[in-house]
């Protein structure tokens, strides 16, 4: 079963994306490089609660 998580930009802290997290990687936090509309550039997005 997968769990829905929210991704937030590291620089401006805006919550831009949602993604699913599988059972195998539930113990680690997700770090993905995505485009942030608020910053206007590609930044690292981190999983939030």
Description:
The chain has 49 residues and is mainly β. The protein is built from no helices and 4 strands. The protein has strands at 3-9, 15-21, 31-36, 41-48. The relative contact order is 0.38. The mean pLDDT is 90.
What's the arrangement of secondary structure elements?
Elements: E1 3-9, E2 15-21, E3 31-36, E4 41-48
Antiparallel strand pairs: 1-2, 1-4, 3-4
Describe the structure using short key phrases:
single chain, 49 residues, mainly beta, four-stranded antiparallel β-sheet, 4 strands, elongated, ribosomal protein, ribonucleoprotein
Fraction of residues in β-strands: over 45%
Radius of gyration: 11 Å
Q: Largest sheet at a glance?
A: 4 strands, antiparallel
DSSP strand tally: 4
Count of alpha/pi helices: 0
Keywords: Ribonucleoprotein, Ribosomal protein
Organism: Evansella tamaricis
Protein name: Large ribosomal subunit protein bL33
Family: Belongs to the bacterial ribosomal protein bL33 family.
Quick overview of this protein structure:
0% of the residues lie in helices and 57% in strands. The chain is mainly β and 49 residues long.
């Amino acid at each position: 079963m997968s769990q829905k998580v929210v991704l937030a930009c590291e620089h401006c802290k805006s919550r831009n994306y949602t993604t699913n997290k599988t059972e195998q990687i539930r113990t680690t936090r997700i770090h993905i490089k995505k485009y942030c509309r608020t910053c206007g550039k590609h930044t690292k997005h981190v999983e939030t609660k």
